[in-house]
Design brief:
Rossmann fold; single chain
Amino acid sequence: MSERWSEAHVPDLTDRVIMVTGANSGIGYEAARAFAQHGAHVVLACRNRTKADCAIADIRASAADPSVEVLEVDLGDLDSVASAAKQFLSDHDRLDVLVNNAGLMALPHQRTAQGFEMQFGVNHLAPFALTGHLLERLLATPGSRVVAVSSTGHRPGKIHFDDLQLEKNYGPWRAYFQSKLANLLFTYELQRKLAAAGSSTIATAAHPGGARTNLGSENPGGIVNTVAHVLHPLINQVMQPAAMGALPTMRAAVDPAAAGGEYYGPDGLGEQRGYAKRVDSTKRSRDLETARRLWTVSEELTGVRYAALD
């Protein structure tokens, strides 16, 4: 296999079922499109039905008789997450890959339906809950995978256990960095639990580098953020296309050689551009005590237990 892993390396995915959250645009859309073009049945799990239907139409125009469907889910509401998972379990007898792609970045302070800080809720708690609700189907599908889409933003991140919802000291980037670190802590702890249970299911992670998407298009306020917001269209022009940013996600999801606990990103300078390769994450992301504590807190906050892995 070429060292430069590209979309051409995506294998035949016939008969596989793949769910991608936030698949109506950006890297989620590009990954869903590629999976469908290679024969998978792809479930686009999205909040906005109209945008999801448009994405479905685009995928159908790009592939010969693709197998795609929409699953409506609002990741800002854990009741919606539970309902969507229940619907999927009713409709499908297998789940080969769950790509927890949907996310928010650097928002003004907002809360989820259950009152959690929005970025922590959507970027971490919702994927934690969705994966837990779908765990029985994942474990029953040989060789299945759970993929978390993190970010280089995990590097400055810290888990603020004394103020997880950042009520005392909210900052849009502080919240984002915490949530992206949480993605990796969850992935590595999930992989440890899967391995201990002797499951063939694995957990992997990826980050897109600097990709041209609509993520970060909302101005959270402040001078620096306002300047960045004004320059966002210009900055986007020097970033790589979303299809390139999606390569690490694709590799984490379907590369036959990928192993549990691996993390993928672009191979270019600073992991901002290029083809997909295995990359490293921070020492903080590998901290066992932090991961276990976050797992326990996440179970308490979501009410979702991974009983099959206890």
